[in-house]
Write a structure and sequence with these properties.
Strand order of the largest sheet: 2-3-1-4
Mean pLDDT: 76
Number of helices: 13
Structural class: alpha+beta
Number of strands: 4
Number of domains: 2
Radius of gyration: 24 Å
């Protein structure tokens, strides 16, 4: 085994950044489960909800965190073979740390001491809203770096990969099936509440995922198109496309530049144009999904270098 190759990712900034993001996201999720979901006994369509059902049926003999660990171990095997090595390995990490993080929360401040009456907000609707918001943010962050919180997210990712359904829809469908197990321990009202929460969770995941992935599709018509092209390629490190256009009002021929930029890069471009007093016609729209060369910095750099030579 080539240990040097195996340990190579440890030397990259990308590895440590994603590790920090996964740890932070899972800490947020663990806080939501331990301090909101467990005390209120809300069964949102998730593995944590299913674990609460099983733990309750067993009379509390097995901790919720332990049941979550067992279920996640089974689902991780499916993730590795059905989704991919990277997703599987990242989800192994997130799934393994959620239970210790919940135990850490219990050690720092047990939920029965934190909230008297078994509810953080004192109202199941408010508990539901808080938990869905927290969980959706964590899920969106992890999906963006090709990871997940484990459990339900693995099932959702499988559905997403093989049916091409939106990730939020996949979360909602898989969650609704799990949510129905709450009929075994909860009254009808709380089960309906959980189903509503699962549906909202799917919508919120799509919203946050689109927000995190949002890019600007910029179209510029200017006589300074060559300077703009140079700035986009050399300073922003992005590619662009040039089109011959003809004005319908003036009949003049010109060049239109189209580029996909991040929010920060778009701001830098507009500042460059303002500082250099460039006259241009600019339109910009949001684009939530980009695939291929745009998101691969190494491939982009190779293409640019080969073009320069």
């Amino acid at each position: 085994m080539d240990f040097a190759k195996l340990l190579a990712p440890l030397k990259t900034w990308k590895f440590w950044k994603e590790l920090a993001l996964m740890t932070l996201a899972m800490l947020v999720a663990a806080i939501g489960v331990y301090y909101i979901l467990v005390p209120s006994k809300l069964i949102i369509g998730s593995i944590s909800g299913l674990s609460i059902v099983i733990s309750t049926l067993l009379g509390g003999a097995v901790k919720v965190s332990t049941i979550m660990l067992i279920i996640n171990a089974i689902l991780l095997i499916l993730a590795y073979f059905l989704i991919g090595k990277e997703f599987g390995l990242k989800t192994v990490y997130t799934a393994l740390i959620v239970s210790p993080l919940m135990d850490l929360c219990a050690w720092i401040l047990p939920n029965d001491q934190a909230f008297q009456g078994g509810s953080m907000m004192g109202d199941p609707w408010l508990d539901l809203i808080c938990f869905v918001l927290i969980l959706s943010i964590a899920q969106a962050i992890l999906f963006r770096i090709n990871a997940s919180t484990g459990g339900l997210d693995i099932l959702a990712k499988i559905v997403n990969k093989y049916t091409h359904a939106d990730i939020g829809t996949s979360v909602a469908v898989a969650g609704a099936c799990i949510c129905c197990t709450a009929f075994l321990i909860n009254p009808f009202r709380l089960v309906v509440l959980g189903l509503i929460g699962t549906y909202i969770n799917g919508l919120m995941v799509d919203f946050f995922t689109a927000s995190l992935n949002r890019r600007k599709r910029v179209c510029i018509i200017s006589k300074d198109h060559e300077r703009l092209r140079s700035f986009i390629i050399n300073d922003l490190g992005r590619g662009c496309s040039l089109y011959d256009v003809k004005g319908g009002f003036t009949g003049e021929s010109s060049i239109e530049i189209q580029a996909l930029l991040t929010q920060t890069e778009f701001a830098d471009l507009m500042k460059f144009m303002s500082d250099n007093d460039m006259h241009a016609f600019v339109t910009a729209g949001n684009c939530s999904e980009v695939y291929g060369l745009w998101s691969d910095k190494k491939r982009r750099r190779k293409v640019r270098d080969s073009s320069a030579t």
